[in-house]
Amino acid sequence: MKETEDCFLKVKNDYLSFLRKEKIFDKSTESKILSLKKTYIPISFWIENKYKKKGKTLFLGFSGGQGSGKTTVVKILKIILKKFFKRKIHVSSIDDFYKTLEERNKMSYAIHPLLRVRGVPGTHDINLIKNFFNHIKKKNFKKIKLPKFDKSIDDRLKKKYWFNIKEKPEVVILEGWCVGAKPQSNSLLKKPINILEKYEDKDLIWRKHANHKLKKEYKKLFAMIDYFIFMKIPYFNMVFKWRLLQERKLKKMSHTKKKIMSYNKIKRFIMFYQRITLQMLKDMPKIASVVLTLNHKHQINKILFKN
């Protein structure tokens, strides 16, 4: 208990400062403090214990429905792990490993038009992530550059803007909506679950391609992860509501003001994610070592530590 209280006192100011910077004003200060004590600090202690148990770089997968708040939670965990536990943390978003617009355009002509749209398995450069993980496992770590993706231009930035990783991380968190996703059976793929699949993927080419990628490259990547943490949303319809809020925030923070999605574009966009998101809501609570359950108010109201 004393160690938990020490942690709280050490990170409290940085935590509240971060929330102000991120313009998170939807909760009272009292509620924010409660979240720090009851949610973020316990998860951080769990991560620290897992790192100590392993004794070398810990690889974590962090997933949840779009707009669930994954990125915010991971940033808070990073603050605590660095400030209190003095850990070297690296957080990678799977979004930063999207294939370039040019690569996706080529796939859209060669395989299926829907592959131009970023998001589903098959639109990430999985080899880049695997190479990064393998690079960390080497005894003699050398600095490495990792890609940076700008959603406002729907493309990867030039190498001069990439992330510089100068020292070997002790904890690596791979955060993304489909991290840990499992493939479906062919019988489940046959029935379209929305109008996008019904009218734009009549021959099942697009969803079979994504499913095949989950069976192969993504399965190998996810096997490199030690533990998964999953944010369980109440139901899929919340993705639209939360994604809309996310885009509005992106619009405020973007310097270019380009390609921020409208109401109708978001409705269409989330259809790309629907099938895998629904399957993950069934699978991940069984797979993940930590399950964070969200209520309809976007609040974590339950944490389950399974091992």
Automatic annotation (TrEMBL):
It comes from marine metagenome. The lineage of its organism: unclassified sequences, metagenomes, ecological metagenomes. Gene3D superfamilies: P-loop containing nucleotide triphosphate hydrolases. This is Phosphoribulokinase/uridine kinase domain-containing protein. InterPro entries: P-loop_NTPase (IPR027417).
